[in-house]
Specification:
Helix content: over 70%
Radius of gyration: 22 Å
Distance between the termini: 42 Å
Largest sheet: none
Strand content: under 5%
Order of helices and strands: HHHH
Mean pLDDT: 82
C-alpha cells in the first residue's frame, strides 16, 4: 500500500513538472518567433532608412541604419541567452521527471533538451564559438 501511495505521489509531481515543462517549451517557441520578428523589423527598418537617399558617412541615415541593425542583433543575442537559460532549467526538469519516472515506472520519460545540449557540445569548435558569440549556446 505504501508503494502505491509513493507511486501516486510521484505521478502527481510528474504531472506538475510536465505542466512546467510544457509551459517552458511554449516560452521558447514564443521567444524564437519573437526574435525573428524583431530581427526582420530591424532589417526592414535599416533598408528603408538607407533607401531614402544616398548613404554616406556625412548623412545620418547610414548611422541610423547601422544602429538599428546593431540593436536588432543585440536584442537577438539577449533573446538567445534567455532561451539558453530556459533550456538549462528544462534539463533540470527533465532530470527530475526522469528520476521520478524511473522510480515509479522503471524508465525515464524525457530526453529532448538533454540530448540537444549534448549534441551542441560535440559540434565543431568554430560553430561552438559562433554559437556562444550569438547567444545560441552556452558553456553550461
Amino acid at each position: 500500500m505504501a508503494q502505491q501511495n509513493g507511486q501516486g505521489h510521484d505521478a502527481e509531481i510528474i504531472a506538475l513538472l510536465m505542466r512546467e515543462y510544457e509551459s517552458l517549451r511554449a516560452e521558447i517557441a514564443q521567444r524564437v518567433a519573437s526574435r525573428m520578428q524583431i530581427l526582420g523589423f530591424s532589417g526592414v527598418t535599416a533598408a528603408i532608412v538607407t533607401g531614402t537617399g544616398e548613404v554616406s558617412p556625412h548623412r545620418p541615415s547610414a548611422y541610423i541604419a547601422v544602429a538599428t541593425l546593431l540593436l536588432g542583433v543585440l536584442w537577438l543575442r539577449d533573446c538567445n541567452q534567455g532561451i539558453q537559460r530556459i533550456g538549462r532549467h528544462l534539463r533540470e526538469v527533465e532530470e527530475e521527471v526522469n528520476r521520478l519516472a524511473r522510480r515509479a515506472y522503471g524508465s525515464g520519460a524525457l530526453s529532448w533538451e538533454t540530448k540537444r545540449h549534448v549534441g551542441r557540445q560535440h559540434e565543431r569548435p568554430v560553430w561552438r564559438l559562433l554559437g556562444r558569440l550569438g547567444g545560441w549556446t552556452s558553456r553550461h
